[in-house]
Amino acid sequence: DGGITQSPKYLFRKEGQNVTLSCEQNLNHDAMYWYRQDPGQGLRLIYYSQIVNDFQKGDIAEGYSVSREKKESFPLTVTSAQKNPTAFYLCASSSTSVGTQYFGPGTRLTVL
Amino acid sequence: DQQVKQNSPSLSVQEGRISILNCDYTNSMFDYFLWYKKYPAEGPTFLISISSIKDKNEDGRFTVFLNKSAKHLSLHIVPSQPGDSAVYFCAASGNRQTGANNLFFGTGTRLTVIP
Prior knowledge:
heterodimer, A: 0% helix, globular, B: mainly beta, six-stranded mixed sheet, five-stranded antiparallel sheet
């Protein structure tokens, strides 16, 4: 089955710790994206990558970092510099940089 | 500043009737619009899209209408079914010719279809 997987579904971390969220796709999509969703709000773009070894900041990149070493994988690290990291994180991919984006199931991160 | 707005946070409709979800945008550079459906604790599911060169796109029970002069689009679901109950997000992207595909999302409308 082709799709986008995110793990884990629920994640807890202590304040001051870095944590990495996984995103994998087997759709052979070139572009991948990270969004966060907060209660009552729409999705906001954190980072995106149009090709391997290249990525750009989105609207709310501060306190986050990414890597794109493989086409299938686009992990997101939430660093201790992120002031309000508790949120629902969504990964997406699209076949091209202008294609329709398809989303994974999401990871809910809670900072204790 | 919210460039894509969904001013109705919720909508209730009787099963079998039409559901109309509305979306407004402010950026005239947006040229591609999408609707996503989302259940709690799940990722959004793509429903239907429309390019700015069209004013209507239909896919089964779902139709999206675009009014560029008013910077307004709407999603019609006919007939509405209880399984349609979810949060619906409107999204827009611009500058597709330059390769940028950043999506700007509205805040969502929670649709409840009453059996």
